[in-house]
Specification:
Largest sheet: 9 strands, mixed
Oligomer: single chain
Number of strands: 32
CATH class of the largest domain: Alpha Beta
Shape: globular
Radius of gyration: 29 Å
Number of domains: 4
Distance between the termini: 50 Å
CATH superfamily of the largest domain: Medium-chain alcohol dehydrogenases, catalytic domain
Length: 716
């Protein structure tokens, strides 16, 4: 299918052929008919992408600071390599569209195939022939609303939410500063609410359009203060809604000047917000921000999982705002055709952006149209001309997030015996870009295409945690060797299902490895060798200064990420297992009583006993200082001691002497882990990580989470 994408590193924008997205739970597949280019927002995005590296850093100072911190930890070369890799990832453009439902996922039964819908959302309602959109970002079209008008649904909801924040009353005098699409829509809806409206914009043609669409008066920025004084009979306007898009502080300054005492100022657009104290203080102005489409925005539980807010407590969500806007369009209270200045077919969409960037002709509403009934030609597999390879390990990749790209793909690409054949990701944009970069034979958004590929003998799974179990089982059933990122699964039931499947298929020589990489590091190998000939059990302590992760991050979601103990704690349990050479046999976990974040599972201590009599304590904290190294390990036994700091330095104490090993940079064993996996397959020998070890670690972490809830000690 055709989709508009931009490479953030090079700034190159194009209409590319990519596989259509896959249908997922809580959402819909929609065949687009029309999508809207939000000129202000998208032009800004394109401009940032076209800047050089310094320009990008200046536009995103917080990201620049993260890069500097990463350089301090991982070194300049490795950090820049990851930065350039991420910048090289193409991004989908667009966030407002309308079309026809092609498929309905689980928990979206209010929709049916064939429904006409309007869709919203960055990375969802893109400029593409087919899109996947969560159900709360989709609404059915009223009878009298066509696809072209419906494509305005996102900017309409944004404008409506700004009005709701202002809380206008019948007869209020309102100034709208900035008369782009959102400003023009704001004026029309304010008039429908019974307000008198003053519009302002430096572009006089937009002022004229505002008058045509119902504004009572307009003014240029230079005359706005005087006109507003006359418009409000010297009292100042009741409400100012700022819909401009500029880094300049001018809009909030003029808003303070024209508002009456105890008036309301609402900022909808991206503007400078260095508020001048004097007018806001002396007038005691009520300053408010409007959050995009409304409540639900940026809430993954609402948008991605379909968990609605009760209407009794949250009357207007982003979905309800979308419905209300289209109702206004349906009743002819809002007119959209006068806002459309240009129409482009999807094949020519690049010309639309060229026109915007060159600014040679006036423009406002720009819509992209799509061919009708072309679903049959949208193959979920796109083939490439592959690089020649003699590798005996033919690999399919399912899932390609930052971890896979940063840590796993670099060493795999250096292995001559590995040929990367197929790439599968949820979105066609990423699959296509990565497939071309790696010289794969094809890319797809359908995992089944990978499983059915008879030329492929190995699968690497790097998807979100909740999908690991099902994909592992399907891969084994398809007769593939499997490397899956941790964790193996999220429940004991899934663990038992995997164990049964592996037992059935391991007899066929299939390998299963989980991304528990730390045991394979140079530090892990030296630690194990140091205690190899001991006669007595070990006492081990592993301290993890994990750092904060926001409560709404997907890894904190127990149903998706499993939480941090299951999702990350498995690394540290396995490291202790590898050093002592015995599996855990019991676990008890306790956590802090409370934490300001509302999360306590990431502030806990796990007490472990191992089969050889060794004991270990895992101290996991999200409350430490970020300058402290993340990981510290120590072990004691047979008169010997070992410490390891963040996989950079290990110190060995024996017979009154200390020796030191330094790896130069953090070595967490990613390359060694993959080498072991590939060589075991190639040589037909047993895996270096036995399934019994994988099972023990996974079950230990599952029981640790249960122990946090109950306080009980569990036998593994």
């Amino acid at each position: 299918m055709k989709q508009v994408i931009q490479n953030f590193r090079s700034g190159v924008l194009k209409v590319d052929d990519v596989p259509p997205p896959s249908l997922r739970d809580h959402g819909l597949l929609v065949e687009n008919r029309v999508s809207l280019i939000s000129a202000g927002t998208e032009k800004s995005t394109v401009q940032v992408a076209q800047k050089n590296l310094l320009g990008k850093a200046m536009e995103r100072p917080e990201m620049a600071r993260k890069v500097l911190r990463a350089i301090q930890k991982d070194g300049l070369k490795d950090t820049l390599k990851r930065v350039f890799e991420r910048l090289d990832t193409p991004a989908a453009l667009g966030y407002s569209c309308a079309g026809t439902v092609l498929g309905v996922g689980q928990d979206a039964s209010q929709f049916s195939v064939g429904d006409r819908v309007a869709c919203a959302g960055q990375n969802y309602a893109s400029h593409a022939e087919i899109v996947f959109v969560p159900k709360h970002l989709c609404v059915k079209l009223p009878t009298n609303v066509d696809f072209e008008d419906a494509s305005f649904v996102t900017v309409g909801a944004i404008a409506l939410q700004g009005i709701r924040q202002a809380e206008p009353r019948l007869g209020d005098r309102v100034a709208v500063v900035g008369l782009g699409l959102i400003g023009q829509l704001t004026i029309q809806m304010l008039k429908a609410s019974g307000c008198r409206v003053l519009g302002s914009d430096p572009d006089l043609s937009k002022c004229d359009l505002a008058l045509q669409l119902g504004a009572d008066q307009v003014a240029s920025p230079s005359t706005l203060i005087d006109v507003a004084a006359s418009f409000s009979e010297g009292q100042g306007v009741d409400i100012v809604i700022v819909t401009a898009s500029t880094k300049d502080n001018g809009p909030v300054e003029v808003a303070g000047a024209i508002a009456r005492r105890k008036g309301v100022v609402v900022v909808v657009g991206a503007v400078g917000m260095n508020l001048p104290r004097e007018p806001y203080y002396k007038k005691e102005l009520d300053f408010r921000l409007s959050m995009s489409y409304g409540p639900g925005r940026y809430d993954s539980a609402y948008e991605e999982k379909g968990q609605d807010y009760p209407i009794s407590y949250v009357r207007w969500t982003e979905n309800r705002n979308m419905v209300a806007f289209l109702d206004l369009v349906n009743d002819s209270k809002v007119k959209l055709k006068p806002l459309i200045t240009h129409r482009f077919d999807i094949e020519d969409a690049k010309d639309a952006y060229t026109m915007m960037m060159e600014n040679a002709v006036p423009y406002l509403g720009i819509v992209i149209t799509y061919p009708m009934d072309q679903v049959a030609r949208h193959s979920r597999v796109i083939e490439f001309t592959p690089k020649k390879s003699t590798g005996s390990i033919t690999l399919g990749l399912i899932g390609a997030g930052n971890h896979v790209k940063d840590m796993l793909l670099p060493p795999l690409r250096d292995m001559k015996q590995v040929a990367i054949v197929g790439i599968c990701t949820a979105t066609g944009v990423n699959a296509k870009a990565l497939g071309e970069k790696l010289g794969a034979s094809y890319c797809t958004t359908d995992p089944q295409a990978v499983f059915e590929d008879a030329t492929m003998n190995t699968v690497l799974i790097g998807t979100r945690h909740d999908s690991h179990a099902s994909l592992v089982i399907r891969a084994l059933q398809a007769g593939k060797h499997v490397f899956v990122e941790k964790p193996l699964c999220l429940t004991e039931q899934e663990l038992d299902q995997i164990a049964t499947s592996y037992q059935d298929h391991s007899r066929k020589g299939l390998h299963l490895m989980v991304g528990l990489n730390r045991r394979f590091s140079s530090h892990g190998q030296k630690a194990r060798a140091f205690f190899l000939d001991r006669k007595n059990p070990l006492v081990m302590i592993y301290r993890v200064n994990a750092g904060r992760i926001p409560p709404d991050h997907w890894t904190q979601d127990l149903t998706v990420g499993g939480g941090r103990i299951i999702g990350e704690g498995c690394h540290f349990v396995d490291y202790m297992q590898a050093v002592c050479g015995a599996p855990p046999v019991s676990v008890h976990a306790t956590r802090v009583a409370h934490d300001a974040s509302g999360i306590t599972d990431d502030q806990c201590v796990m007490s472990l006993a191992f089969k050889d009599g060794s004991i270990g304590s895992l101290i996991y904290t999200a409350g430490g200082d970020t300058t402290l190294p993340k990981e510290w390990f120590e072990a004691h036994g047979d008169g010997k001691s070992l410490t390891m700091t963040d996989f950079v330095t290990s110190e060995f104490y024996a017979q009154g002497r200390k020796t030191q090993f330094t790896s130069g940079k953090r070595d967490k064993g990613f390359a060694q882990e993959l080498t072991q996996f590939v060589e075991a397959i190639e040589q037909g020998r047993p895996p270096s990580m036995r399934f019994e070890e994988i099972y023990a670690v996974t079950r230990t972490c599952l029981l640790a989470v249960e122990s946090l809830r109950t306080g009980a000690l569990y036998d593994v």
